[in-house]
Amino acid sequence: MHDFAVTEKYSLFLDFPITLDIERAIAGGPALDFEPEHGARIGVMPRFGSDQDVRWFDVATGSVVHTANAWDDGDDVVLQASRSKTSDIAGAGLNAENLEDTQGQLYEWRINLATGVVTERTLSDVRCDFTRVNDAHACHPTRYVYAAAFNTDRPFSFDGVMKFDNETQTTTTFHYGANRFGGEAVFAPKVGAKTEDDGYLVCFVQDEAAQQSECLILDAQDLAAGPVATVMVPYRVPYGFHATWVGDL
Known about the structure:
The longest helix has 5 residues. By secondary structure, the chain is mainly beta. Helices cover 4% and strands 49% of the residues. A seven-stranded antiparallel β-sheet has the order 7-8-9-10-11-12-13. Strands 14, 15, 16, 17 and 18 form a five-stranded antiparallel β-sheet that branches. A four-stranded antiparallel β-sheet has the order 1-2-5-6, with no helix packed on it. The protein is built from two helices and 18 strands.
């Protein structure tokens, strides 16, 4: 488990079938592998509970690396994350022949704690990971989810940013351009922000043709317009670098 999620009342743990086996690695196999026969489930624990209080709910088998957000909605607990059918970090996942299975899509689980019924659905056709929200709204219902958009031809490469609107169920994207790849886009609110998406997305991009790393700043309310500022970085920023945004207090 790489990530988990929290609501006001609960912590959510994802028990999905990516396995770590040192003996398998010593024998020449992959240290990490995807073993779907183990199934998948989500554990829901009261925020101040113990392991005896965890309730497990079986869900469709798949893989989740990063969660986006979770919140309480009456008897329901809602979780949104990037989910793939298999895994791009386990076994022989890093090849271009199975990207439809290994690249995640924004997904939602709605767990009814009264009935035990779990409702699942894919939210967007865009393949993505590194899902983020405005951190000021974490643990509460969020209208917007941001994520790094996968290049659908090249394994484990992100060539843009996406924004999903939970209210309109629509996705907007911005692509970096040819031979330009990046990673996680972090939301930074504007000073005096009035709405949830009133801010910027900050991300690092590598231009492989120019061998130049850049920090792009996008208006979160108008991704299609492209960056409002570009900062040239004097060092190579490695793919996969991701962190968070801390305002000047």
